[in-house]
Amino acid sequence: MQIETKFDIGDTVFFIEENKVQQATIKRISINVNESNSQFGYGYKPDARIRYSTDSSNLSKYKNEEQLFKTKQDLLDSL
Questions:
Q1: DSSP SS3 for 15
Q2: Strands 44-54, 62-64: parallel, antiparallel or unpaired by DSSP?
Q3: What are the phi and psi torsion angles at 3 (to 5°)?
Q4: Spatial distance between the Cα atoms of 9 and 58, rounded to a whole number of angstroms
Q5: For position 54, what pLDDT does the model report?
Q6: Cα separation of 35 and 59, whole Å?
Q7: Looking at the predicted structure, is the pLDDT value of residue 51 above 80?
Q8: Residue 27 near residue 38, CB atoms below 8 Å
Q9: CA angle, 23 then 29 then 30, to 5°
Q10: Tens digit of each residue's pLDDT (9 = 90 or more) over 9-47
């Protein structure tokens, strides 16, 4: 299995929190891999969950990869 992350440690990312666009720097990457049933019942498939820890002490510390964007414009385009 090969897992690729969307962001690297030190990257600046953008996300929505408290109804505002926020930005933070990635400090830690956490990858959890579990087995899950396949959608069609043909055995198990790996399910990887990638989470990022930021330096924002007053905001939620951990964010899922789907919640983060490389640029503010990418975030706004997703809304």
A1: strand
A2: antiparallel
A3: -115, 130
A4: 20
A5: 86
A6: 31
A7: yes
A8: no
A9: 125
A10: 999 999 998 899 999 999 989 898 887 766 666 667 778
Query: What are the residue ranges spanned by the domains of the chain?
Result: 12-78
pTM: 0.76
Per DSSP bridges, beta strands 44-54 and 20-37 are antiparallel
- The answer to whether 53 touches 65, Cβ cutoff 8 Å, is no
Q: What per-residue confidence (pLDDT) applies to 48?
A: 85
As a whole number of angstroms, the distance between CA 16 and CA 14 comes to 7
- Residue 7: CB atoms within 10 A of its CB come to 17
Considering Cα of 8, then 60, then 66, then 45, what sign does the dihedral take? positive
Of 33, 55, 56, 57, nearest to 46 (Cα)? 33
